[in-house]
Amino acid sequence: MSIDLPAPIAIYIAAENRGDTETLAQCFAEHAVVRDEGQTIEGLAAIKRWKAETKRKYQHTVEPLACVQKDGKTIVTSRLTGNFPGSPIELQFIFRLDGNKIASLEIRS
């Protein structure tokens, strides 16, 4: 099933699955904020480090299952499959876009 995603989110997920931290970082606004696994990651350099570390640690892939707009945010329910207990799991990726960039991303179960 193909999900219609806004361009920055589609690029983010494709780069995530390839492990392409350079392209992935280009999806984010300069002062973007990510919240994942109880931590807050701020700014492009920190986001690139976070993404490289999580990819190395979990060797995961993301498969979007559904996408809805709510309160100015894009919520993408995705199946995460990788090297972690309970794999695969479904998580919500909650994006706030600013033009063609991701201003914030929260990942939660």
3D structure, described in words:
This protein is an alpha+beta fold. The protein has three helices and six strands, in the order H-H-E-E-H-E-E-E-E. A six-stranded mixed beta sheet has the order 2-1-6-5-4-3. Strand 4 and strand 5 (89-98) form a beta hairpin. The longest helix has 15 residues, at 44-58. The protein is globular and about 35 Å long. The model has no long low-confidence stretch (mean pLDDT 94).
Shape, principal axes of CA atoms:
globular
Q: Helix- and strand-based class?
A: alpha+beta
Strand order of the largest sheet: 2-1-6-5-4-3
**What separation lies between the terminal Cα atoms?**
22 Å
Strand content: over 45%
Radius of gyration computed on alpha carbons: 13 Å
Tally of individual helices? 3
* Oligomeric assembly: single chain
Number of strands: 6
What are the segments in which pLDDT stays under 50 over at least 5 consecutive residues? none
Order of helices and strands: HHEEHEEEE
| Main pleated sheet | 6 strands, mixed
Helix coverage percent:
25-40%
User: For the residues shown, what is the average pLDDT?
Assistant: 94
Topology:
Blueprint: H1 7-18, H2 21-26, E1 28-36, E2 39-42, H3 44-58, E3 61-70, E4 73-81, E5 89-98, E6 101-108
Parallel strand pairs: 1-6
Antiparallel strand pairs: 1-2, 3-4, 4-5, 5-6
Give a quick set of tags describing it:
109 residues, 6 strands, 30% helix
Give a quick precis of the structure.
The protein is an alpha+beta fold and 109 residues long. Helices cover 30% and strands 46% of the residues.
